[in-house]
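Following up on my earlier thread - several people asked me to post the actual chain instead of describing it. Fair enough. Here it is, all 252 residues.
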Amino acid sequence: MTNMALEVEGLQARLGDLHILRGVDLEVPFGEVHALMGPNGSGKSTLCHVLMGKPGYEATGSARVNGSELLGLSVDERARAGLFEGFQYPVEVPGVALSDLLEEMAAVNGPEVTARAAATAAVLDMERFMDRPVNAGLSGGEKKRSEMLQLGALDPRVAVLDEIDSGLDIDAVREVAKAVQAMRGPSVGVLVITHYSRILRYLTVDRVHVMVAGRIVDSGGAELAESLETSGYDALVTEHGSSVSSSFLDGL
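Reply from S.P.:
Thanks for posting it. Predicted structure:
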């Protein structure tokens, strides 16, 4: 195992004629939690999609999990390599109970998944949701806790969490931050993508990166997020430009 959970070098990505990622360089070591911040349309969610292999993107460069190249692999192969993506808007899966999903995870990844799922469910108070369809009828906070349960059960090498604080009230933000903090360990690297610094008030991060116009334009400690909370992104956008039109801002 290398000391780097996630290594991204010169990553570029296009969606049709739209050039979104323009040379992303990023490293997340094992044992660390990093935050990726930036304005709408900067490419943060696109980075998630490209890392996980969402169809439609043309990607070049390199992206490695625990030393294994991801580009060119199927979504299933990337997951087996140790990559987990937490979605900004978790999908509802009517007719499939959460317990059934966890059983399938255990069948593919080994019986230790069951033990980790039980332990994580107890921490997150999720036992009462086991017989309910995955994410169906749940609040925003409950859906994010369900994802944290799946994350804890799978024990990936890299967890990329796309705006896990989106749409949550302050109590739910605290719960999700607590869940992420609890999974911190020497065998996983975590990248938390967020617009705002509020989740970082409850989550200890080792490093903060700022993305503008499809590139990482600044990196620093937690104080960088506090500075952005005060100054905003306008100066960075003016300096580094905007990579996409306003019609594509959401979801990129």
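The chain is about 35% helix and 30% strand. That should answer part of your original question.
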